[in-house]
Structure formats: structure tokens, C-alpha cells
Design goal:
The complex is a heterodimer of chains A (335) and B (286). By secondary structure, chain A is mainly α. Chain A contains 14 helices and four strands. Chain A has a single domain, classed as ABC transporter involved in vitamin B12 uptake, BtuC (Orthogonal Bundle), CATH 1.10.3470. Helix content of chain B is 74%, strand content 3%. Classes of the chains: A mainly alpha (335), B mainly alpha (286).
Chain lengths: 335, 286
């Protein structure tokens, strides 16, 4: 195959990838026309979980950082939204706007601190997994025990956010179909941010770190800085997802920060396909949708089935669903 | 309000350390010998606690459970190793993920078989004894003895038995050991079974104190990992002993001055700092 043919192939692949993404987005935009309000509410929830999954997909698939504590950032973002409504940090300004600005700053900042602390001393692989896992356990414990701030087991209630321009209009998004679009925009926006990152030179270096960190380092790249930076982005994305989730569900409680959700995200991403951004998104959507359907059909056996599927994916089906389909139908890898 | 007397601080610290030694030893052996992160360790402890519940519920003594639980759970370990883990020895992160899958499966199977509510297991030594003027629960003293006995047995097994020598050869250089005629896969399989069996024993051992609950093992899982990582795997026994003392002992000691959750949070945070500063563990090296 000549160089030109190969380039042509790559271009065709890229355009195929683009078509798939655009098609999926178009379907998602039209979906509320046929969805019952309650289903729109559920789907909006799934989109925000998918944004959380995407944050892990970026880390795991493109840098090889497996975080077992991504829910800690999600939960922190959720609590920031709740606190913003409860304490009105900036009087006169829509508390949701404040939270949506504050959440990525705080969660991204926390991720930056943690990344600086861990990556610069070369903590990686299983050690990184254990530490991130412990962090979400710690945060959940704190949220349960420090009830004056976190509301303890009872959690904190908050209203649905409003979109407003001061003096012009103020419209509360109590309609679930409208909030659906907020969640969808957040997910599409998050995807575009990740896409931009992985397609850039920066992303190329991230892939090099994933393939062989020692070699990348010896080529003169400050790999710890790269890893910290992408960890910040992922933390901020998870924080935004959490903040929107809080005002969608109108309730936050300690499990949002915790161990169980953190490990579930890993399962979503693995099932969808850990090496593609779309895999993380689709995996999150599918597993969550399946959990809603199956838990009404087989009740408690659902987690048993999920566990078995997860083992199978890890052992023999490593590409995940999207990875497999994309290979089968030549969708390229810019998904 | 617990009186701040010296004897009770010492004894609580000692108990917490012993329980963690019992809980973490199986994990330390599997991680130290095979480099496998067994996230199912907590679920295996839970399984051990439920075996103890089933045995005592059938009218047999807890001591029977101390025999049955390690065997049953070692067999669960055997199934895990034969079906999945042995395919993944060259993919450490995937091993970790697969064991998490097993953790979910085991935990849910327990719920299916025993229900979701927690069960209590009778305590064979319920009367407290007087030691140095303070009342100590007898069963906890027994646990201290069990921890010491397990450390001694592990030391002797890996230092002097044929299997122990082979397995240390496999850790040092598995290819070389294989070429010299050691069946490396067999050593891995037995090691995994021993680690799982120890988790089962730990579950049976803690069951009279904490009962049997689908979530019993989860708390021990995270603590055990800190024990292993803070202690380091270079020196298996010193690491487990030291790690347990630091994680369990200091949390117990701190809980005299603050709430238990806060004490544990502080200890976890300190442990993370230790890992950052000494990634090979406090008792690392060979």
C-alpha cells in the first residue's frame, strides 16, 4: 500500500469517525421528542454519568492512568452545587452559575494538588489505584461523619437550577426535557474538550507516556507534568458532571463521592471500550440503562451479572463494545 | 466515655494491630509473592465470616469453622485462579480488574444465599478477664495469639519447607526457577489458595466480633492494602507486622482522642504521605 493510499485510508477513517459522532449527537438531540419526561430525566442522568465515565476514559485510555477515585471529584462537584444553593456564596448571582464555575476550579485544583503530590514521585500503576481508591473512601467517610457540612447520611436537598440573565429573565429548568439538553450539551462539550486534547500534540505525548513512560521521559518530556495536567482536566470534567447531577437529582448524599460509584465507573469504561473516548461514553450509557431495566427484571441478581460480564470483558474482550464495533465496521479510531 | 488509662490504650492498639495482621496476611502473601493485587480479598473475608455463621448456625462450634472456613475459601480461590487469574499473570492491571469482578460476584452470591441482613456469630469466649487491673475481652486476647501464631507459621512455611523455598525462588526469578524444574504455575496456584484461605480464616476470626454482613470485608480490604503498601513487600512478615501496627494500631490509639472515623481518616492520609515519600514501603528492601 502506497503512502498516499494509507493517507487516504486514514482520512476516510477520520471522516467515518466524524459521521458516527455527528449521527449519534443528532439522534441524541431529537430523542426528547419521543421520550416520556421521566425517561428524559433518566437519560439526562446517564449523560452526566457518561461525562464522569469520559473523564476516566481520557485518563485510562490515553495516558494509561487508572483512577479508582474518579467519583471523589464527581461527589465534590455535587456538594459544591448543593452548598452554593444553601449558603449563597455570591449574593445576587445565580447560585448554579457560581457552582458551575467553582466546581471545576475546586475539583481541578484538588486533582492538580494530588497529581503534583503523586506523579512527581512516580507513584503509578497499582499504587495509584490503591491511593485513589482510598481517597474516595476517605471522602465518603468524611461526608458521612461531618454532618454539619455534608448533611451526613441524610444528605442535602437543593432545587433545580435556573437559567437566568439578571434583569432580563429567570427560568427554572424544572422541565426534565429542558434539563436533558443541558446534560447533553455538557456531555458533547466534554467530549469535544477531550477530543481536542487527544488530537493535539499534547495528546500525542500522552499516548507516548501510555506506551512507554521511561522512553518518553528520556526524550526530554516532563511526564509528571503532562500527567498532572490531564488529571486536572479529568478532575474538572468529573466536577462539572457532579455539579449538574446534583441540581438534576435535587439531592446529594455521601455515596456520590464514594467507593462503589468509583469502581462502577471503571466497569462502565471497560465494558464500553477503554481505548476510545466514545467507548467510555457508550459504556456508561449502556451499563446505566441496563441497570435500570435489569434491576426491575432480575432485582438483586443484576450486580452478579454485571460482575460476570466485567470479568469476561477483562479477560477476553478487552476492546469493549465500541472498540469491537469500530473495528468490525471500519469506523476509525477518532471516536 | 472511655477512661484514658494507659492499659486500655495499649490493649486496644494491640487488638487492632492483631486483627489487621490476620486480615492482611493473605493479601500480603499474594501481593508479595505474585505481584497480584487481589481486590476480592475483602469479599473472601466476608465469605469466611459467612462460613463461620453457617457452621455455628448448624450447631457446631466456632473452632470447626476455623477449620472449614479456610478450606472453603481456599477452594473459591482455586476456582478464581484456575478460571481467570492464571491467564492474566503478565497483565497486572487486568488482574486487579478481574479480581474486582470476582469481588462483586462473590458478594452478590453471598446475598443470594444468605440474604442481605447481617447475622451474628456466637462468641466462644465472652467473659472478660482481668489483666493488670483492667477488664479485657478474652476473645480479643485469643486474636492476639492467633496473629502471632499465623506470623510464626508463615515464617516457618516460607523459610524451611520445600514449597517455601521453591516459592521464594519463583519470586526472585521465575524464569530461572522454571528452568531448574520448579513448576512455576503450580507455585502460583498454591500461593493464591493460601492467600485466599487466610482471608477465609480472617473472616471466621473476626465474625464473633463484627458478625457476618455482606459488607464485612470491604472495610478490611482498604485497611489491608494500606498495611501491605505502607509495610512494603520486601520483608513479608516485618512489613505486615509494621504496617498493621501503623495502620490499625495508630488508628486505635488516635480514636482515644477523636472520633473513630476521624482517626481512620488521619491515618489513611498519613499512609498516603508515607507511600509518596517511600514508595517501596517502610520496611522495603530485601
Amino acid at each position: 500500500m502506497s503512502y498516499i493510499d494509507r493517507t487516504k485510508g486514514a482520512v476516510q477513517h477520520a471522516s467515518m469517525s466524524k459521521k458516527v459522532i455527528l449521527g449519534a449527537t443528532a439522534v441524541a438531540f431529537l430523542l426528547p421528542l419521543v421520550l416520556q419526561p421521566y425517561l428524559a430525566f433518566l437519560t439526562a442522568q446517564y449523560y452526566l454519568f457518561a461525562l464522569l465515565g469520559l473523564s476516566l476514559g481520557l485518563l485510562w485510555g490515553y495516558v494509561g492512568i487508572l483512577s479508582f477515585g474518579q467519583a471523589a471529584f464527581f461527589g465534590l462537584g455535587a456538594y459544591i452545587m448543593a452548598w452554593s444553593f444553601k449558603y449563597t456564596f455570591v449574593p445576587g448571582i445565580n447560585p448554579a452559575y457560581v457552582a458551575l464555575l467553582l466546581a471545576p476550579l475546586v475539583t481541578g485544583g484538588a486533582a492538580g494538588l494530588l497529581g503534583w503530590f503523586l506523579f512527581y514521585s512516580d507513584v503509578k500503576d497499582v499504587y495509584f489505584v490503591i491511593i485513589t481508591l482510598a481517597l474516595s473512601v476517605i471522602l465518603e467517610q468524611l461526608a458521612v461523619s461531618v454532618s454539619s457540612i455534608f448533611g451526613g447520611f441524610n444528605g442535602i436537598y437543593l432545587p433545580r437550577m435556573a437559567v437566568s440573565i439578571p434583569g432580563v429573565f429567570n427560568y427554572q429548568l424544572s422541565n426534565d426535557r429542558l434539563f436533558y439538553y443541558v446534560a447533553l450539551l455538557a456531555l458533547v462539550g466534554g467530549y469535544m474538550v477531550c477530543r481536542r486534547i487527544v488530537d493535539s500534540d499534547f495528546g500525542e505525548t500522552l499516548l507516548a507516556i501510555k506506551e512507554n513512560e521511561t522512553r518518553t521521559k528520556s526524550l526530554g518530556y516532563n511526564t509528571a507534568r503532562y500527567k498532572t495536567q490531564v488529571f486536572v482536566v479529568a478532575g474538572a470534567l468529573a466536577g462539572v458532571a457532579g455539579a449538574l447531577y446534583a441540581t438534576l437529582a435535587q439531592f446529594v448524599s455521601p455515596p456520590l463521592t464514594g467507593f462503589v460509584l468509583s469502581t462502577e465507573v471503571v466497569i462502565w469504561v471497560a465494558v464500553g471500550g477503554r481505548s476510545l473516548l466514545l467507548g467510555a461514553v457508550v459504556g456508561s450509557l449502556l451499563v446505566n440503562a441496563a441497570s435500570t431495566v435489569l434491576s426491575s427484571l432480575v432485582a438483586s441478581r443484576y450486580i452478579l451479572i454485571l460482575g460476570l460480564i466485567f470479568i469476561a470483558v477483562v479477560v477476553v474482550f478487552r476492546k469493549g463494545i465500541v472498540g469491537y464495533v469500530a473495528d468490525r465496521y471500519d469506523w476509525g479510531d477518532k471516536l | 466515655m472511655v477512661a484514658l488509662d494507659f492499659a486500655s490504650i495499649i490493649s486496644q492498639t494491640l487488638f487492632a494491630t492483631s486483627i489487621l495482621i490476620v486480615a492482611a496476611l493473605g493479601l500480603a502473601i499474594i501481593f508479595g509473592m505474585m505481584g497480584v493485587i487481589n481486590l476480592a480479598h475483602g469479599a473472601l473475608i466476608t465469605a469466611g465470616a459467612y462460613v463461620a455463621y453457617a457452621v455455628t448456625n448448624a450447631g457446631l462450634s466456632l473452632w470447626v469453622a476455623f477449620l472449614v472456613a479456610p478450606i472453603v475459601v481456599a477452594l473459591i480461590g482455586l476456582v478464581m485462579e484456575r478460571t481467570v487469574i492464571n491467564r492474566l499473570y503478565d497483565r497486572p492491571v487486568d488482574t486487579l480488574l478481574a479480581t474486582w469482578g470476582f469481588a462483586l460476584v462473590i458478594q452478590e452470591l453471598i446475598k443470594v444465599i444468605f440474604g442481605t441482613s447481617s447475622q451474628s456469630v456466637p462468641n466462644p469466649y465472652s467473659t472478660p478477664v482481668q489483666v493488670l487491673g483492667s477488664n479485657l475481652p478474652q476473645y480479643r486476647i485469643f486474636l492476639v495469639g492467633l496473629a502471632v501464631a499465623l506470623l510464626v507459621v508463615t515464617y516457618v512455611t516460607f523459610k524451611y519447607t520445600d514449597f517455601g523455598i521453591k516459592s521464594r525462588a519463583v519470586i526472585q526469578n521465575d524464569e530461572m526457577a522454571g528452568m531448574l524444574g520448579t513448576n512455576v504455575r503450580f507455585v502460583y496456584m498454591v500461593t493464591f489458595m493460601i492467600g485466599a484461605g487466610l482471608a477465609g480464616l480472617a473472616g471466621a476470626a473476626v465474625s464473633p466480633i463484627v458478625g457476618a454482613d455482606p459488607r464485612t470485608g470491604l472495610g478490611y480490604l482498604v485497611q489491608s492494602f494500606f498495611v501491605v503498601i505502607v509495610g512494603g513487600t520486601g520483608q513479608l512478615l516485618a512489613g505486615t507486622l509494621g504496617g498493621s501496627g501503623l495502620i490499625g494500631g495508630s488508628a486505635a490509639a488516635l480514636s482515644f482522642v477523636s472520633s473513630q472515623t476521624l482517626a481512620q481518616t488521619v491515618v489513611f492520609a498519613l499512609a498516603i504521605v508515607v507511600i509518596r515519600l517511600k514508595p517501596e514501603g517502610l520496611f522495603g528492601g530485601q
